[in-house]
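Attaching the record inline, Q. Sequence:
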Amino acid sequence: MSVLPQIDLEAYRYELPKERIALFPVSPRDQSKLLVCNQGEIIQDVFQSLSHYIPSGSLMVFNQTKVIRARLIFQTTTGAQIEIFCLEPVQGDEQVSALSATGHVQWKCFVGNAKRWKQDRLILLLKDQSQTELSAVLIDKKEDYYIIQFSWITPELTWAEVLDLSGKMPLPPYIKRDASLEDEESYQTVYANIKGSVAAPTAGLHFSDRVLDDLRNHDVQLAYTTLHVGAGTFKPIKTDSIQQHEMHEEELVIEKTFVQQLLAHSGKPLVAVGTTSVRCIESLYWIAVKIKAGAHTVSEMNVQQWDPYNLSTSLKTVEALQILLSWFDAHNEHRISIKTSILIVPGYEFKFVNLLITNFHQPESTLMLLIAAFTGKNWGKIYQYALENDFRFLSYGDSSLLHKDCG
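Structure, as predicted:
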């Protein structure tokens, strides 16, 4: 049984000048800068050269989630603009099934300029041939979000298609500009496959087809999993202690074939592309711990933020993967959808991940704590190097390849 480490949040803050926040991506996408940190040594290169720094025989894990056009711009009868940012379905349904709904849906949303929303129903004309009307009705106001019901009368249109026809790409709040047509491509990974995220897994934005080909040619096996990224990924830590911070929950889709890949590569280097891939892979261990402890239903297997610090850690990683495969076989399932709110902070013992590809993150964020947990005490040296050597920060910024305990 482990205990939650005491975290001095002040020790994980740094000054990020506004001019270091990238507002636009580098083009081509694989020409971004790459910082490499290994055994205390830091060097820089270009991302296109990534394969030179990955050990042969490694397994590289990507998050194949696809960003949906989650921002809807309505106009009131008086001309006021109302922006609705769709977060997730109210009922907690899987994103895939929620996006396939027809006729009407209820979603949790952020609402911009909500004070100007006076009328019962907002109307937006979809950009389809029949100029279908999309209506939005405010059902309820919660502390952190609104519940909105969206309705449309064209029966063949799914909610995913409605968003494609009417929505805009949901750029992060720190990118202070409107989304452009170029963002439709640049804010999506080249391997994005399963719709469901309202924010991109940005570590993957640097990968081009030629980088992926180079990795395969260097005997690096590629594997894909899915964690649908929520807007909570941008939520800063505003509490005095980490114990008071409520970690956001995200949907993790686990395929049996992915677990088999992990087991087949046991003992070889595992490279996670992005913090979402880390949270996905590391959550598997705690799901297995819960199954061994008697969890039967999927909801009992959901990973809570403090599970890694309260549950037993005696299970070996190979055993954990075997337990997951046995669960799949016993239930005749090939995939399951789990909710995870795993919170990785300094003191966490990583179970699977050996190397991490990631961008440079916001101060006062849980992502910053994850980086500090992974790299060790001298994470600040990495960020100081990036600041002094003109690296670009956050979602459209440059990249890094970090070895575990490299700081």
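The longest strand covers residues 81-89. The two ends are 27 Å apart (CA to CA).

More tomorrow.
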